[in-house]
Each structure stands twice: as structure tokens, then as C-alpha cells.
Amino acid sequence: MELLSAPAGRFPAASFRRRRAGRSAFRCAIAEPSGVPAPLGQKTQYRDGWFAKVFMGLFARKMEKFASGGITTSKGIGDWDYESFVDVSRRVMMGRSRKQQQEAVREVLLSMLPPGAPAQFRKLFPPTRWAAEFNAALTVPFFYWLVGPSEVVEVEVDGVKQKSGVHIKKCRYLENSGCVGMCVNMCKIPTQDFFTNECGLPLTMIPNFEDMSCDMVYGQTPPPLEEDPAANQPCYSSLCSVANPNSPVCPKLQS
């Protein structure tokens, strides 16, 4: 497998000091018997339970409304698998600009919630250290189906050490899509925007395109897109079916 020599996507202005925290005992999908993601060049094997399949189905059916080709399926909520979920994401990306992709995901996220949910979230979780740490703790078990094994880690936000970081060991979404553009436009930017602007709790996501890991930092305001190293990443030329190996930046990341 050809590895990227690009920077790991860290923000030099922020200090992220991580310390291992206790692993969650709650697992809704299993990534190999040891719980350790497969090495680079190998795909991690998952055995998804009903919880994971229900969430895949919920997200995929919402995303189908934005997918190109107007193709819909008659699958039930629990009949989806992860490959089908990623395929729907890819069809949402096709034929859309970077901004349009991000807006489509925003609409999907809002459609998953009852009316007024973001406003209620702001009341329940004002941007405090407690709220940041609580949401980091929830992320590990409830988003296992989407991103794979992760753990709560200690980070430094505005000079304060707190356990509001989540280290994703090898992102399942990036591993299965093999697409830098999908990672940034369909996950990183919309998720950051949703928590920061819709819910009022700042979130920064820092993908590492060298090992496919990712750090989520609740309480950390994300940088403008033009200052974000993730917006200047080249394609995974050996993994992405629509990669342009001659371009210094993934075409899907360009305006």
C-alpha cells in the first residue's frame, strides 16, 4: 500500500497531549477479537450487531434522498451493511461541490433529530469543560459503529488539561471509503460545524492521513477551512477509485 508523505494534519497552534483512559466496556460492533484495528494495508474486520446495523440504516436512508441517480432501495432499517452505507455517501458526494456536500450532510444530521433538538442541546450542554468531557465519553460507545475503536484521552484546550479528547485508532469511514475528500467534506467539516454552530459546543476533528487515525477535541474551536491542513491533502492514489494522482490536493477538496 502506498502511504502518503503529507503532514499528519496536526494544528501547530494547539497543544494536544493525550493520555490513555479506561476503555469502554460497551461494544456494539467488534473489530477483531483483540479489539485492535488491522495494520495499514489490511482492512479491519467487523462483526456488526443490531445496534450498529440500525444506525447504518437510519443514516443511509436519510442520505439516499441526496444521493445521485435517484436510486432508492427497499431495505429495512436493519438490513444495511457498512459497505452499502459508504456507497450511499459516495453517491451523495458525486456531482456536488465541496460546499454542497457539506450542506447535504448537515441536512441529514438535522433530519435525524426532533425539531428544536439543537436548541435543547445548547441548554443542556453549554460550552463548559463538563459538557466537553461528557460528550467525549458518549462518543466512544455510540459512534463505534461509524468510526471504529476509540478511547477518551486527555487534551489541552486553552491551556487547560481535560478529558475531552477522543482518539479514533483507525477511522472505519476513511478506511472503507479510501477517499480524502469524503473524510473532510462528508465527515470532518459537517460534524465540526454541526456541534460548533448548531449545538454551540466547539469541536475540532484532526484526521491523520498517514495512519488513518483521528483526534476529536470537544471544546476546541476549529480553524477556518483555509487554515486547516486537512483541506490541502492529496488523494490516496492507491485506494480511491476516483483519485487524481497528479493533483497536489484531492480534487474534492477544491472549491
UniProtKB/TrEMBL annotation:
- Which residue numbers delimit the Beta-carotene isomerase D27-like C-terminal domain? 145-227
Which InterPro entries did the record assign? Answer: D27-like (IPR038938), D27-like_C (IPR025114)
Annotated GO MF terms: iron ion binding
Query: One matching Pfam family, short form?
Result: D27-like_C
Name assigned to this protein:
Beta-carotene isomerase D27-like C-terminal domain-containing protein
Report the source organism. Spirodela intermedia
